[in-house]
């Protein structure tokens, strides 16, 4: 299907930029909740320490202190561990090439083939149907409605869908006019 895009551009996300953008996403949307729960568990642990001082023979309180401290540590450690593993996976993937297409009220993002399959079967694939190549994920469509949000940083954009799914769009390789088209997607919904 032929799409009518205002902007169509290929790009890559280097692993170092991915790590920086993922950390930025976590600081804005993951860490606040994590810190809230960490504080709650530490408060409960302190309350149980106070109870242990008042009644030193109550052994269940000591168990509750350890459990609260373990949950507080988990709230601190889990986001960092997830980021480390995700960045490691992205580094192992190499440097895939993506393509973004921005149209009226939507953004399409898909992985572009490295060219090896196109050389083998040039008659069966078209440039418009790159996401249909074997082994590539399907095209992702983001509707720029009330669930879409664009966050701009110095080196990249974060395209958020429902605050749970995000896409990283580096500014490197985009002209100022192309960056302006990306900026206008935040007001399109």
Polypeptide structure, described:
The chain is an alpha+beta fold. It contains four helices and seven strands. It has helices at residues 15-54, 59-93, 116-120, 176-184, and strands spanning 7-12, 97-103, 106-112, 140-143, 148-152, 156-161, 165-170. The protein has a four-stranded antiparallel β-sheet, covered by helices on one side. The chain has a three-stranded antiparallel β-sheet with strand order 5-6-7, with helices on one face. A hairpin with a 2-residue loop joins strand 2 (97-103) and strand 3. The protein is elongated.
Task: Give the SSE layout.
Layout: E1 7-12, H1 15-54, H2 59-93, E2 97-103, E3 106-112, H3 116-120, E4 140-143, E5 148-152, E6 156-161, E7 165-170, H4 176-184
Antiparallel strand pairs: 1-2, 2-3, 3-4, 5-6, 6-7
Helix pairs in contact: 1-2
Number of extended strands: 7
- Helix content bin: 40-55%
Note the run of SSEs as H and E.
EHHEEHEEEEH
The oligomeric status of these chains comes to single chain
What portion of the residues fall into strands of 2 or more residues? 15-25%
Radius of gyration: 23 Å
Secondary-structure-derived class: alpha+beta
Please state the overall shape, judged from the principal axes of the Cα atoms.
Answer: elongated
Q: Please mark out the parts with pLDDT under 50 across 5 or more consecutive residues, or reply none.
A: 113-126
Instruction: Give the terminus-to-terminus CA distance.
Output: 23 Å
Summed up, the helix count is 4
Global mean pLDDT: 86
Largest sheet features:
4 strands, antiparallel
Strand order of the largest sheet: 1-2-3-4
């Amino acid at each position: 299907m032929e799409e009518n895009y205002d902007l169509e551009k290929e790009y890559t996300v280097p692993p170092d930029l991915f790590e920086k953008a993922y950390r930025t996403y976590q600081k804005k949307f993951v860490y606040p909740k994590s810190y809230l729960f960490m504080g709650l568990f530490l408060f409960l642990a302190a309350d149980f320490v106070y109870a242990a001082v008042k009644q030193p023979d109550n052994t269940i309180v000591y168990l509750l202190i350890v459990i609260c401290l373990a949950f507080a540590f988990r709230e601190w450690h889990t986001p960092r561990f997830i980021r480390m593993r995700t960045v490691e996976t992205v580094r192992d993937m190499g440097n895939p090439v993506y393509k973004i297409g921005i149209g009226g009220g939507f953004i399409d993002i898909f992985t572009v083939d490295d060219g090896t399959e196109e050389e083998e079967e040039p008659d069966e694939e078209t440039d418009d149907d790159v996401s249909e190549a074997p082994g590539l994920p399907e095209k992702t469509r983001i509707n720029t409605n009330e669930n879409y949000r664009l966050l701009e940083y110095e080196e990249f954009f974060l395209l958020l869908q429902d605050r749970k799914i995000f896409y990283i769009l580096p500014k490197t390789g985009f002209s100022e006019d192309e960056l302006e088209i990306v900026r206008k997607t935040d007001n399109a919904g």
